[in-house]
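Lab channel / #folding
Pinned by the channel admin:
"Please post every new chain as: sequence first, then the structure tokens as a reply. Keep commentary short and put observations after the output so the thread stays searchable."

First post following the new format, from NK:
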Amino acid sequence: MDIKINSKNFDFFNALGSKTRLKIIEILIDGSKNIKEIAEILDISSTIVARHINHLEKAKIVETNAVSASRGMQKICKVRLTTYNLFFDLKGSGTKEISEYNIPVGHYKECEIEPTCGLATKKQLIGICDDPRYFSHPDRLDAGIIWFQSGWVEYIIPSYFFQEKKLKSIEISLELCSEFPGIKEDYPSDIYFEINGVSIGKWTAPGDFGKRKGKFTPKWWYLSEYGLLKKIKIKENGTFIDEIKISDISISELNISTKKDTTLRIVSPKATNNPGGINIFGRDFGDYNQDILVTVEY
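Reply from TO:
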């Protein structure tokens, strides 16, 4: 497997920055073992081993499976691959320069919301459902999911994130679905995106998904379970979602500056063909355990 040496693969390199985790990898190369077996070999507690295994799982170096044992369940661990090729991503005579910025879904600066709506952390609802006043609650900063039927939320990408260089592209990656009072898999919703007040295009979410559990959604949760991961990329030749062009808006039209913060607004308008609302999934909810991820390339 090829691994590029860049910030996107931080979890991989961070997982290798521990002597204990390297020892665990050496043990698992010889064969699969459960947490207790690894702990006995290393003479440390199973709790510590479990924490290290979580790091290795996040880096996709180790995978685990829960199997039945004489006393409940046990987690069997094994290495995914034994060979990795590391390389720098060179482009011509120079290197591609990429920077990333994470925005938790509850870290919006401003919003204008109409029910159905609500927010939740991985542990509990924030306030009560369908009361927009709770979008001002201080616990919103810990939210892992937000939803609303119509309106908008606006996030800030700080000016210090950008450099005094020519931007080649900006990409926004986030997990979304429609918002229905309950669950409705076939319920299209037009979701619009604006950067610095410029409408860059829309995506129509196919529905509000909940027939199965989201991969990272807490067990106690009972509403929308997961969305679809969308990657919106603005380049010099237009704006694209998942490599499909949605508008002619180019990176140079967005007025991105190192002297003024950039705004990202996500909108569910009433006046559109499919006014179906929005669920925005963040860390600890949905199928992708990530925040809103902004990636710029110079």
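NK: The mean pLDDT is 93.
TO: also worth noting, DSSP finds four helices and 19 strands in the chain.
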